[in-house]
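We examine the record.
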Amino acid sequence: MLNISVMLVTSDCTYFQRVRGLLHGRNEARFFPERVDEYRPLVAVRRERPDVLIVDSFCLGELALRTVRRIAALQLPTRTLLVHTSWTEAGIAHVLQCGGAGCLARQASAAELLRAICAVRRGELWASRKVVADTLHLLRVPAVPDPDQQTLSGLSKRELEIVEWMRKGMTNKEIARAWHQRHDGQDACAEHLP
């Protein structure tokens, strides 16, 4: 069985007791018994090195994202999971951009909380399927049209040449070699121009 160490940053004692109750007696997770002060989470994370840090963004507001950024900057294996009463696609995307591993509803059940903890510990991102699908829908890039019909007018001559070599399946090394073979003589001549 897993024994993931979990720490909670919140200013709400009632919520702390709720999460502690949800995780009590679970083999999957080991919950740190003390509530982490919202103004000193980095000290606790450096000292205890939890696997997962749950940050109560409902209570902490902007401090929550600042905490996520600072934890990410430490480059520790600790993964952050933010909880709030409701999430939007933009909110989740922002959390992920700041280095968070996921978002969860504050009122999540014990089973959902454990699934989220286990997922982020494995290196996965966590959010509801609908929100992830909506977020990916916002981020998706339209398909590239057929190369024969596509106009590449925005690319330089050099870029067009490289794109053509890429379409032929050449590797980066092969492209570099072909570029130098084709243009070394031209570059040498250009060096001697007044």
The radius of gyration is 25 Å.
